[in-house]
Design a protein that fits this description.
By secondary structure, the protein is an alpha+beta fold. Helix content is about 35%, strand content about 25%. The two termini are about 25 Å apart.
């Protein structure tokens, strides 16, 4: 059977050294503002190896621009609850892109929120915090980009 997956999560211990050196070079360029030549020299790879792999390897959970998460929530129909959820999201530094809410039926409202999390420290901590909020009956991450 052929695997048509585009992406894989792989433990870094099994990666060839060149991939780890590319990641180190990328971090040096970003954090220290040095040139590509200086970065590849510091980690011991060629410029061609850096350019070959730089756009294809990223750490999981990297805070990159445009990282989007879509979450679905089931909320009790209580005044101010959605406002509390949105305030919690803002506290974590996420940017709300869209909000869709159904009409509450039998005391339950379904909400779908898409978030840009580029400035956020950890989506998992936000989800845990939202789950523990009074009136939040369920939450699920639908998609991540």
């Amino acid at each position: 059977m052929e695997d048509n997956s585009k992406y894989f999560i792989v433990d870094k211990s099994v990666l060839p050294d060149v991939f780890l050196k590319v990641m180190t070079a990328k971090r040096l360029i970003e954090s220290e503002g040095i040139s590509v030549s200086e970065a590849v020299g510091a980690v011991g790879i060629s410029r061609s190896a850096f350019y070959k792999y730089r756009d294809n390897i990223f750490p999981i959970g990297e805070k990159s621009k445009g990282s989007t998460v879509i979450i679905a929530l089931n909320l009790s129909h209580v005044p101010g609850l959605l406002s509390n959820v949105l305030n919690t999201i803002a506290e974590f530094g996420a940017n709300i892109l869209t909000i869709n809410q159904t009409i509450p039926i039998n005391g339950l409202a379904n909400i779908t929120i898409s978030l840009e999390i580029s400035e956020m420290c950890d989506i998992d901590v936000l989800i845990k915090r939202l789950k523990s909020a009074k009136g939040v009956l369920g939450i699920k991450v639908i998609a991540r980009e």
